[in-house]
Amino acid sequence: MRKYLLPVxxxxxxxxxxxxVLALTIGSLTExxxxxxxxxxxxxxxxxxxxxxxxxxxxLIMSLGVATAAATVATAMALPTALALHRYRTPLNxxxxxxxxxxxxxPAVFLGLAFLLFYSALGFGGTPLSLVAGHIMIATPFAVSMxxxxxxxNDGALERAARSLGASPIMAFRKITVPSISWSLFAGWGFAFxxxxxxxxxxxxxxxxxxxxxxxxxYTGLEWSPLDPSLTAVSSGLVIVTLTVLIxxxxxxxxxxxxxx
Amino acid sequence: MRKYLLPVxxxxxxxxxxxxVLALTIGSLTExxxxxxxxxxxxxxxxxxxxxxxxxxxxLIMSLGVATAAATVATAMALPTALALHRYRTPLNxxxxxxxxxxxxxPAVFLGLAFLLFYSALGFGGTPLSLVAGHIMIATPFAVSMxxxxxxxNDGALERAARSLGASPIMAFRKITVPSISWSLFAGWGFAFxxxxxxxxxxxxxxxxxxxxxxxxxYTGLEWSPLDPSLTAVSSGLVIVTLTVLIxxxxxxxxxxxxxx
Amino acid sequence: xxxxxxxxxxxxxxxxxxLDHVSFNVAEGERLCLLGPSGCGKTTTLNAIAGFVETDGGxxxxxxxxLTGLPPEKRNIGIMFQNYALFPxxxxxxxxxxxxxxxxEAEASVCDRVTDMLRLVKLSHAAKRFPKxxxxxxxxxxxxxxxxxxxxxxLLLDEPFSNLDARLKVEMRNELLELLRPLKIATxxxxxxxxxxxxxxxxxxxxxxxxxxxxxxxxxxxxxxxNLFVASFIGESNVLEGRLRSVASGVATVDAGxxxxxxxxxxxxxxxxxxxxxxxxxxxxxxxxxxxxxxxxATNRFEAKLVDxxxxxxxxxxxxxxxxxxxxxxxxxxxxxxxxGVQRGQSVYIDWASDRGLIVKKEEAQ
Amino acid sequence: xxxxxxxxxxxxxxxxxxLDHVSFNVAEGERLCLLGPSGCGKTTTLNAIAGFVETDGGxxxxxxxxLTGLPPEKRNIGIMFQNYALFPxxxxxxxxxxxxxxxxEAEASVCDRVTDMLRLVKLSHAAKRFPKxxxxxxxxxxxxxxxxxxxxxxLLLDEPFSNLDARLKVEMRNELLELLRPLKIATxxxxxxxxxxxxxxxxxxxxxxxxxxxxxxxxxxxxxxxNLFVASFIGESNVLEGRLRSVASGVATVDAGxxxxxxxxxxxxxxxxxxxxxxxxxxxxxxxxxxxxxxxxATNRFEAKLVDxxxxxxxxxxxxxxxxxxxxxxxxxxxxxxxxGVQRGQSVYIDWASDRGLIVKKEEAQ
Lengths: 261, 261, 366, 366
What we know:
The complex is a heterotetramer, with two copies of chain A and two copies of chain C. Chain A has helices spanning 2-27, 45-52, 54-87, 91-105, 108-122, 128-152, 156-164, 169-198, 201-206, 214-224, 229-253, 255-260. By secondary structure, chain A is mainly α. In chain A, helix 3 packs across helix 10, helix 7 (156-164) packs antiparallel against helix 8 (169-198) and helix 10 runs antiparallel to helix 11 (229-253). In chain C, helix 2 (92-102) crosses helix 3 and helix 3 (107-120) crosses helix 4 (136-149). The chains are: A mainly alpha, C alpha+beta.
């Protein structure tokens, strides 16, 4: 009896908390012109509609592009940073670590505002570059920490073994370390992508009327007509991409390991 | 030489990326009526001004209140959930874990929209309760994962030892387990607080004209006058609270452990 | 009726049989050791007695009362955990007092009892320290004091020395024995270390795959192992395989493949033609550079090839081969000195008395 | 000139002296073992030779060439790592081939050499498997094959058996020895296990706190330890403390506190009145229920109190006390059988020949 109390409690609680998500998704299957739960009739008409809507498709493509670029740059930067943090145990190391992690710690509103003002001052405010730069900034800490997990779980003796067998430091890194931590590179990229793809705050500050990401599109659509079912349909696109990347990423991280340790 | 390359690279890179934050903060020390870098003269006038501004102070207090409430409820919910997840290794367990973590994985825009529609449908949209409920939702996963780290690092033999010495399950939990994992309760609360305090997305959807949190205040202020230095000063309030909680929390988590493992 | 009686415990995790009708008795003041490799079920047995595992079948009876269904806190069993499991946020005093306070004893009597316990383990001066301020050996003594402070009906020791280094192990073993002896408390210890088991226990139960393979004193188990598993788990052994040729009372002759006829004792139940194994302990074989005297008829004598001689301090190990069968000999320095000058690969002569070999039935591969 | 010469290595981490003028030579084909407790500097010495640690001073010379400043990949040293460090994403074949491919050898000769190596370690059939598909013992053999495939000038073994259980340890030890012997390669092994060291090495260097305390064969170190640290690190020992009364050539008399005069051998450098320790190995003491013959003048004879007798299978340990001084004896079963019927606390008579005790100067507490 006692044995089942806790999981039942947990399921009940979170089902209630997650009910909104389900209600929203199911509600958007309505045939009426507004979201309702239970839906009035079942149809995919609102999902069909968004494929015809140029702005939504444009925002989706913009979001995918920005997130891909940001995640890729973030991963490229994260590997050497994580290596440095992993390898050298100096006081400087801790400072660097805190610096690297800061964007993940500070409120995104503050960061968005700071980027807006700074990039404008540098003269590239309102360009795609500024949007991508802001996203790189918020995505990097996640790629770095994932890479550090990878390096920490990597056995340093492997690299020493390669060296003793005649491999130069670069060869040992390429042939031994990179393959051993490749999962963390993939997972880091995935997390960075998700962070960037789902971010509203930074995008709100850095997007312009010609550069609208999906979250911004949803938010502005909401201000205009909150119960428009096509809005919900659009946000489903957001969720589907996020979950796809999440599931792919989790395959690399082996979520079980984290759950069971 | 090679030894110093990586940290130098990392510092340079992140200093550049963090420059906006510094520029914004320093720029707000200006005497002029707009943020500029370098600042025109140095003064704290814009910081002084916000203490006189009723809306900003109100937003700060609102944010503190919401974050405190959300973090507290999230922590209270997180402990039994984490216990259940830690103790029972059933297939159901994995489902619960994924459910619990969902709010941290899904884009906040989507969640915000879902909350807005659902809570409105339930008839308490636009109330302080709906704002707090949304924040609880996004803060809970962080409290849960921190508690799970705490439980995982807790030696189960301690509880068994207490039982063998005559303690009932409840006594063993209170006298032995809770003290052993108290750091993770504190740290989980701190993380939940930070998430709630810094969140713009969910608040944007759930706040009304009479319930404005600090991030919302900053964002709406920006739409009105982007280069107002008092806006920057307000966002400093956000940063200061966040960093204070972060530092207090980090004392519990012992960030070194995470850095060095 | 015995003090503690464990009756036919059964337990499975999924399709894995962890305990397969485990039964044994422990008398008052007796020290029993469950010995076996990891996964043999010894820890599950301990947990079943302690109440941490609900078995699928069987029961545990202490002084005539079945413990079945009682939660651990109602069993009055003292446990010394493998990692000691001292409460890190409590002082040494509070750790030892914990069980008494859970029993709502008056604070004055708690204080007296804890003081007595700390004096017993010679750590009175450490009462106010926290566990992590103590050495491994001191932590163990506190764990012991905490376990016996509640005057338990039974004491369980879970791999008590596994966290100590080799040298400290022997020291703590002797210390624990000195503490245990005057208490005269029924004790069950779990270990995978044969030497620990032999040093501490009155009776050893060797377990494998959830079953007790043999129970007896250290000497019985070492000298008359029930099968090859027990023989090789307790001490080293040479094994010769063959078919039984003839059986006399207590002694039988085996045609050992590639070696020839070997005589050894047996404990009955064998027939001519059986597949058997002969177990000979390394220290029971003598060696020399000439054949042993021909008059001792009951002795097994072979010419063997010297593989190597290894000096290991308190003993010297000589590896030889009879044909293809390896035979390892061990003895003191003097024993090896007779081989001085013999080169690797040369012939030596080894022999052992027929009562030094033991015939057991060959187990089917599992 | 020796094949490998390690000359006065010095190293510190912060204020901790890790290596304090470590020097030794290894001849071609010799097996040297660095033995000591954790933190004694043995692993740092190995890493300094391999090139993973740049020492503050000293040098390593192989065949007359100093390795100083050379990175690990230019040293041509084969290393078998403690956890084997097999590359998990490569097959067994690729693992063994790695060093050869880094040397840009032709693929055909790589293939030949790897095939030879796998045949040597009897794992030809496992060429296409991945390391995690192999047992611990098989992984070790692959690690060995990989280390020697590059025909190294020197072979380093870092705690080679620490990951194996007790039984497999002995087996793998013999196996490694069989592989090493015909190779005749200079080998340095690091271990904290005295038995491993004695079984594998020609020469043992016992280290403590960054220094080599004693170097010699297993027998030299066991029989004539330089000090109490070495004596108690290699094997068990009884220690009696006292002041030197008189010194004759090779033999001296000590007034051991609470025991009386004890005669033992010494290696010189002592004076009357010195604080000394007498080391007696447990297996060198005889025991009986009556005093030993009075005619053997050079023998130390004492009446002692029996503490207990423990049967440990291949040996029996008898604990006694002379006054307050504990004396532990060990021997075979027969040796203990003479005490049958003697109760704990009763008197027994122990004696040992004066050349079985060794006098060493008492070290100052550090």
